[in-house]
Structures are given as C-alpha cells and as structure tokens.
Specification:
Layout: H1 10-19, E1 35-39, E2 43-49, E3 58-63, E4 66-73, E5 92-99, E6 110-114, E7 117-123
Antiparallel strand pairs: 1-2, 2-7, 3-4, 4-5, 6-7
C-alpha cells in the first residue's frame, strides 16, 4: 500500500497558479487605515495608523467643513516562493474623510507624522465670552 501525505493547500496553490497571474504592478488592494478620533479640551485629534506609508505619499486636504486624508501604500517587490500561500498585508490607495464640527478652527489645523501614525490636530475656536443665555419667562 502506498501512503501519500495530505496537503490541504496543494489544490488552492494549483488553482491560483492556473487562474490568477498578477502583473508585476498589481497588488492586493483594499488598504483601509485604522483611525482613532478623540476630543480634548482645546482640540480634536484624528490619529491614522499608516504603517509602511511614506510621509511623501500622504495628503491632508480641507474643503469647506471636511478634512480628507488620502495616500497610498505601495507594494514591496518580493521574491515569490513556491510555499507562499497567504498574503494578509493590503496595499493600494486610501481616502478617509471627516466632517468638522462648527467650533473647529479650520485656519490652524496641523498634522504630524511619526512612527507610522499620522496625527491631525484640529484646534477648537475660543468660546465667545460675550455669549449670554436668555431666561425664558
């Protein structure tokens, strides 16, 4: 009796070889960076996780009351091995947009990029000290 070793990935690998042959420039698409937003006493903060994205590939735009963060994580050139079955890293272009609250100081928004995390800081406008609440009679 001849025994053979069962390989559950063999059929998948053969299927991919026959029906899917990516071009060199094509990568796995669908990169959507994770975002954390928080409100501080003097500003709103938008933290965007962008591991593997170069600073020059990130753009922050403001149009009316919307901040848009866009960019691209490019694929790495790698040698494909015969036993390489799974790719979990996603690549491609991304865009995330955030509507600013009424008290946002749009003129003084700034952004910092450090260790793969983009932090967009949206200062709050100073409260109007002449604001008065009217008593209802």
């Amino acid at each position: 009796m001849l025994l053979t070793r069962f390989d559950p990935f063999k059929d998948i690998a053969e299927f991919e070889k026959r029906f899917y042959s990516p071009t060199q420039k094509e990568g796995v698409s669908g990169f959507v960076p994770m975002v954390n937003t928080r409100e501080g006493e003097f500003a709103y903060h938008i933290d965007v996780d962008l591991p593997g994205v170069k600073k020059e590939n990130i753009k922050v735009d403001i149009n009316k009351d919307v901040v848009t963060i866009s960019g691209e994580r490019k694929t790495k050139e790698e040698i494909k091995e015969e036993d390489y079955y799974k790719v979990e890293t996603s690549f491609g272009k991304f865009t995330r947009s955030f509507t600013l609250p009424e008290n946002a100081d749009k003129e003084n928004i700034n952004a910092n990029y450090n260790d793969g995390v983009l932090e967009v800081i949206v200062p709050k406008l100073a409260e109007d000290k002449h604001k008065k609440t009217i008593e209802i009679k």
